[in-house]
Amino acid sequence: MTSSAKAVVAVLLLQAVSLVLGCYDVSTDAVGAEQVHWDYNTDGHHGPAHWHELKPEWSVCKTGMQQSPINIVAADMVKDDGLGKLDARYKAKINATIANDGHAVVVDLPPKSGALKIKGVTYHPAQFHFHMPSEHHIMNQSFPLEMHLVHKSEDGKLAVVGFLFVEGEESEFLAQFVDKLPSYKEPNVKSNIGKIRLLRQNRNYGRYMGSLTTPPCAENVTWTVMLWNFPTVSAHQLKLLSDSVPHTNNRPTFSSKGRNFHTSI
Ligand SMILES: [Zn+2]
Fold first, then answer.
1. Which ranges carry the Alpha-carbonic anhydrase domain (predicted)?
2. Alpha-carbon torsion 114, 119, 121, 123, what sign?
C-alpha cells in the first residue's frame, strides 16, 4: 500500500468511526426517548394523569399553569383588535412524508414550506398530526377530529394552529393522503405522499398561550385555534384515521387558569 493509499484508508476509517459515533449518539437519543413509555390509556400507569411521574422533566405536565388543551368558553373570550388577520402563507404544493409514531399520524413538511408571522416572529411549518377525538373543546363540545399544524421559529419557539373538524362532506385536504395512512403496526416508517396542499385557513381565529399536549408538555406554545367555518371530514375518512391509530389520542382539557382566549372578531 502506498503512503497516499494509506492516507485515504486512514481518512475513510476516521469517517467510518465518526459515522458510527454519530449513529451511536442518535440511537442513544432514540433509545432514551423510547425508554419512557407514555400513552393515552386512562386505566394504566402511563396515561395523561401519570405523565408527570414518568420523567422528572415532565413534571410540568402536572405543575404547569399554562397547559393545553383547554375548554374554550365564552367567559374567557376577549375580542382583541391587536390580533389582526392571520398572517400565514404556505407554498401551494408541498412535498411531504407521512409516518405513524404510535401516538398519532404525523405528516412532516420540508424546511421553509411557508411562514406564519405572530408579533414580529416568523414561524415555519414543520409537521401536522391528528388527534381523535379533538383535544380542544368549545363550550364543552368535543369534535371528532383535530389537526395540529406545528410551526417553529429559528430560535426554537413553537406556534401551533389547531383545526377542529365536524363530520360531514369528505375533506379534499385529507383526500390527498388518507388512503396512504401508515399502520400502527409499522411505527415510524416514513413514506412519501408526494405534493400536497395545506388546509385552507380562515383568517379569523382565537389565540391563547399554552403548552404541548404530549410529554414533555413544555409551555410557552402560542396557540391559534380556528373558530369559524370548521372543516368537514367524512365518516369514511374518520374510519381510515381511526384504523391507523386504533385508540383515542386526546389529552383531557385543562382549566384556562385565568388565561384569556383572544379572538380576532
Ligand atoms: Zn397535537
1. 36-265
2. negative
Q: Where do the DSSP E strands lie in the chain?
A: 71-72, 77-79, 87-90, 94-100, 105-108, 114-118, 121-131, 137-138, 145-153, 158-167, 191-196, 205-211, 219-226, 232-233, 261-263
Domain ranges for the chain, please list them. Answer: 1-35, 63-263
Nearest-CA neighbor of 148 among 112, 92, 199?
A: 199
Which run of H or E residues covers position 60?
helix 60-63
d(CA 119, CA 248): 34
pLDDT given for residue 115 in this prediction:
97
CATH architecture label of 63-263: Roll (3.10)
CA atoms 225, 231, 232, 238: torsion sign: negative
Alpha-carbon distance of 111 to 114, in angstroms, equals: 8
Q: How far is the CA of 38 from the centre of ligand 1 (A)?
A: 15
Query: 24 pLDDT exceeds 80?
Result: no
What is the residue type of 45? Answer: H
What residues act catalytically? 103
Cβ atoms of 154 and 217 closer than 8 Å = no
pTM for the predicted model, two decimal places? 0.87
Q: How much distance in Å is there from the Cα of 134 to the middle of ligand 1? A: 9
Q: Say how many Å lie between the CA of residue 72 and the centre of ligand 1.
A: 16
Residue 31 has pLDDT above 50, yes or no: no
Handedness of CA 165, 171, 172, 175 (dihedral sign): positive
